[in-house]
Every structure is written in C-alpha cells, then in structure tokens.
Structure prediction request, 147 residues.
Amino acid sequence: MFDIGLIKLPANTFTTDQILPLCRYGAEPWTKLGSCGVGSRSNRAGSSEFSVRLIETYFHERVAVFNRNRDGLIYTKKDEHLSGISEGDAGNPLYMLDEITNRPVCVYGVASSATPVVYLEGMIFETSLFTSVPVTFNWIIATLAHY
Prediction:
C-alpha cells in the first residue's frame, strides 16, 4: 500500500532551508497542493518524450468524493487544464503550499500513479494518486529512527 522509499544521506548533504518537513496532518479541502517532475509527455507524433525542464503543477485533494486516506492514498483534482503528474514522475513530492507566498510548507505525499481513471459509484474521475505522508508518518519516523 505505501509507495514510499527512504534513503539515508551523509550528514551536511543539504542545508536546512533546502529540506521540507513532513506534514503530520491532513490538508483542509481548500489547501493548494503542488508537485513537480520531468515525467514523459506525449508529443504531436504520438510518442512519449521526457521534459527538458522541471515542471510544477497544482492540485486540491478530492475529499468530497473519496473517503480521505481510506487506503493511504491521496486522490487529487487538477487546478489547471491538462495539469497532472506524468508517467515517470512516481516518487516525486506532493507539498502543501502557503496560501499567501505560494511556497512549499511541508511534504504531504509521494507520487504513486499518473492520472489513472478511477471508477466510483458509477462515476468516472481522472486523478493523480499520491501516498499520504500523514497516514504513513509514524512508519516513516520509526524507520528513520531504526537506521
């Protein structure tokens, strides 16, 4: 269920201003979320190619339709037309954004699946799936403490 991998980096690899804290609690429905990646995109010829630059996209969590974190996943809806994570973006962060500065606040999820079609109660939803950091928070902390 949990699509999260942890790696241990040498001390002083990053400065504290380069590291986002983990989110401990779920986002409010209106909270703007962001993710970035260089996953593949389809070109006009119908083949896939990877982006040459990092692309950021924005989401909100789908809490009205799905039971929040019922399976440890965050289901998102796009904020922009044709916006979503791409094939190859698995493992990228989903972060909460500050409503005033639009800067990342904390890591809220980890990209699991690029824009699948989800069928629920006879309705079809196009969504991006992320593994929930708040749901897996205790496991993450225990695993880091073990190593």
About this structure: The two ends are 22 Å apart (CA to CA). Residues 133-146 form the longest helix (14 residues).
